[in-house]
Design goal:
524 residues, alpha+beta, Dipeptide-binding Protein, domain 3, 4-stranded mixed beta sheet, 4-stranded antiparallel beta sheet, 16 helices, 26% helix, Peptide/Ni-bd, signal, transport, peptide transmembrane transporter activity, SBP_5
Length: 524
C-alpha cells in the first residue's frame, strides 16, 4: 500500500488477443471497488477503494511506459538543474478540464502549494512531497518549476504515481478541501479520459467519456465501478457476467475462473511486498534481535504455499525482483528457524514464564495485532499468531473493517504489530517509507529511525547514474535486511481475472494500465 492507499489490483490485462475483432463503439465495462471512493487522490480519506478510479479522472504530469519508466502525460518534457534542486516541466498545451476550462500551470501550482505541501492539511502522500519539494513556481501558463530542498532523482517517477493534478477553479472559496463533498464524493471536474456521470452511495460509480480529453476520444463509452466489499461476492459477479474484471485475492479461486470459457487469468509481477510492521515506539521492538527473532519464527515458504498457493516468493526487502537493475538478493536471509528465534529472544532478555509465554521485567510478551477484513490479511495474521505462539510470544488479534483499520493503524499509529503491504513506484527510491522524517506522520508506519539509512537514501536521490544508484541501494538493502524496519514476508504475484471481451489494456502493471484507459475497448 502506499500511505493510506494500499493499491487495489485491477490488472495487467494483456492487449491484442482479439485484435482482429471489431470494437463496440458503445461498449462499457464494469469493475469493482471495495467501498465508496473519494474523487481526490490527495484526500487523507482516499485509500484502496479510490486509487484507480482517480487514475481515470486525474492524470499526473507523467505516467509510466511498458518498462515502468516515466514518460509524458500532462507534461511533455522536463529537465533538472545542474545542482538537482530545480526541475522545469513543460506542460501539454490546449488541455481542458471536463467543464471546458483550460488546464494550466496554475492548476499544477495549486495542487502542490495549496494542498500537498501544506503540512496542516495532512494530504495523502503529503510527507513524501514535503520531504523534498519546497514549492512549485508558475513560470508561464505552460511551464512550472519544482523547487527542491534536496535533490530528488526519481521526481518524474513519483509524479506518475497517484499524483493527479486538481482544478484550481473548482476549489475557489473552499476552506477545507477534504470536506468539499460536492467534488470529492459527487461530481468532480476532471481531465482524464472519463468523467463522473452518476454516484449511488454504496452501490455504483458511473463514468462516461470525457469529450475534452486531450488524448482523443476514448474507445469505451463508459466505465462503471460496483461497490462490492466481499471478495467472494466479487468472484460470483464475475462468473455470472455482472462484472468484467476483478483482482483475485484468494488464489484458491483460480480454478473456478479457469473453468469458465468466457474468462481468462493473467498473472504478473509487481512492485509489491507484504510485511509485518512492528511499531518501534514500543521499546520491545527497538532491539534488532527481537525483530530478527520474530521473522525467523515465521515459516514464509509455508505461508506462500498455503495463503498464496505458490503465487509469490520470499521477500528480502522493499526493492522487489521486478527491479532487475537494483534488486539485491545477496543480503541477510531469515529461513524458518524457531530455535534461532528463541535463542535471539533469550539474548534480548526474554525467558519463558509459567505458562510458556516469554517474560521480561515481569511482563509477558503479548502483542496487540489489529488487522482488517480485507483479502488475505486475516489468515496472514492468524498464521503469524500461531508461529509466534510456538516461540512463546502471544499475539492478540483484533479484526475490523478496512476504513477503521486505516485510521487506527496507518493514520494514528495505534498498534503494536500489523500485517499489511506496500505497493510503490518501480524505483529503488524508498525514502518516503523509511526516512526518519516520515515517521509518525508519513509512510514510515513502523516509525523506524536510522541516521545511517537516512544518509544512504538521500545519497540515492542525489545519484544520477544507474551505476551510482545501484551501489547505494545495494548497501541500503543490506542494511535494511539486517535491521528489519519491517518484517518482510513476500513479493506476491498479481492475479487478475477478466472477461475475454475486454481488450486494450497494455499489460504494464496495476496503476499504469489505468493511465492508458482511453485505449480500452470491448469486442462486439
Amino acid at each position: 500500500m502506499k500511505r493510506r492507499t494500499m493499491t487495489l489490483i485491477l490488472g495487467t490485462l494483456l492487449a491484442g488477443a482479439a485484435g482482429a475483432q471489431s470494437a463496440d463503439p458503445n461498449g462499457t465495462v464494469t469493475f469493482v471497488t471495495t467501498a465508496d471512493p473519494t474523487f481526490n487522490p490527495w484526500s487523507p480519506n482516499a485509500f484502496v477503494e479510490s486509487n484507480l478510479i482517480n487514475e481515470l479522472l486525474f492524470p499526473g504530469l507523467t505516467r509510466w511506459d511498458k518498462d515502468l519508466k516515466p514518460v509524458p502525460d500532462l507534461a511533455t518534457s522536463w529537465k533538472a538543474s545542474a545542482d538537482g534542486l530545480k526541475w522545469t516541466f513543460n506542460l501539454r498545451k490546449n488541455v481542458k478540464w471536463s467543464d471546458g476550462q483550460p488546464l494550466t500551470a496554475d492548476d499544477v501550482a495549486f495542487t502542490f502549494n495549496d494542498l500537498v505541501l501544506k503540512k496542516e492539511l495532512g494530504a495523502n502522500q503529503g510527507s513524501t512531497w514535503r520531504n523534498s519539494v519546497t514549492k512549485v513556481n508558475v513560470v508561464n501558463p505552460s511551464t512550472v518549476e519544482f523547487i527542491l530542498s534536496r535533490p530528488w532523482a526519481s521526481l518524474p517517477t513519483y509524479l506518475a504515481y497517484y499524483a493527479g493534478i486538481l482544478p484550481k477553479h473548482s476549489f475557489q472559496g473552499v476552506t477545507d478541501p477534504w470536506k468539499f463533498t460536492a467534488f470529492n464524493k459527487q461530481n468532480p471536474v476532471s481531465s482524464g479520459p472519463f468523467k463522473i456521470s452518476q454516484v449511488v452511495s454504496g452501490a455504483t460509480v458511473r463514468m462516461v467519456r470525457n469529450d475534452n480529453y486531450w488524448g482523443g476520444k476514448p474507445k469505451l463509452q463508459g466505465v462503471t465501478f460496483k461497490v462490492v466489499p466481499d471478495s467472494n461476492a466479487q468472484l460470483a459477479q464475475l462468473l455470472s457476467g455482472d462484472v468484467d474484471l476483478i483482482a483475485i485475492g484468494n488464489p484458491e479461486t483460480v480454478d473456478r475462473v479457469k473453468s469458465s470459457p468466457n474468462l481468462a487469468i493473467d498473472i504478473a509481477t509487481a512492485n509489491i511486498y507484504y510485511f509485518v510492521a512492528l511499531n518501534q515506539d514500543d521499546a520491545r521492538f527497538q532491539d534488532a534481535r527481537v525483530r530478527q527473532a520474530l521473522l525467523y519464527a515465521i515459516n514464509r515458504p509455508a505461508m506462500i504455499s498455503s495463503v498464496l498457493k505458490g503465487y509469490g516468493q520470499v521477500a528480502t526487502g522493499p526493492i522487489a525482483p521486478i527491479q532487475k537493475t537494483y534488486y539485491n538478493a545477496s543480503v541477510q536471509q531469515y529461513p524458518y528457524d524457531p530455535a534461532k528465534a528463541k535463542a535471539l529472544l533469550a539474548q534480548a532478555g526474554w525467558r519463558p514464564g509459567p505458562d510458556g509465554t516469554l517474560m521480561k521485567d515481569g511482563k509477558p510478551f503479548v502483542i496487540s495485532m489489529p488487522t482488517a477484513s480485507y483479502q488475505q490479511l486475516v489468515p496472514i495474521s492468524l498464521l503469524v499468531q500461531q508461529y509466534w505462539k510456538d516461540i512463546g510470544v502471544k499475539a492478540e488479534i483484533k479484526t475490523m473493517d478496512w476504513n477503521s483499520y486505516i485510521q487506527q493503524v496507518i493514520v494514528k499509529r495505534d498498534y503494536q504489530a500489523s500485517a499489511a503491504w506496500w505497493s510503490t513506484p518501480a524505483d529503488p527510491d524508498v525514502l518516503p517509507y523509511y526516512d526518519s522524517s516520515a515517521a509518525n506522520v508519513g509512510n514510515n508506519i513502523p516509525n523506524y529511525k536510522n541516521p545511517k539509512l537516512d544518509t544512504l537514501l538521500e545519497n540515492g536521490r542525489k545519484a544520477s547514474s544507474q551505476l551510482a544508484r545501484r551501489v547505494v541501494y545495494n548497501e541500503a538493502q543490506a542494511l535494511m535486511a539486517k535491521e528489519l524496519p519491517y518484517l518482510y514476508l513476500w513479493y506476491p504475484q498479481s492475479i487478475t481475472a477478466y472477461n475475454k471481451r475486454v481488450q486494450g489494456m497494455r499489460g504494464i502493471t496495476q496503476a499504469a494500465d489505468f493511465q492508458y484507459a482511453n485505449e480500452w475497448f470491448v469486442t462486439k
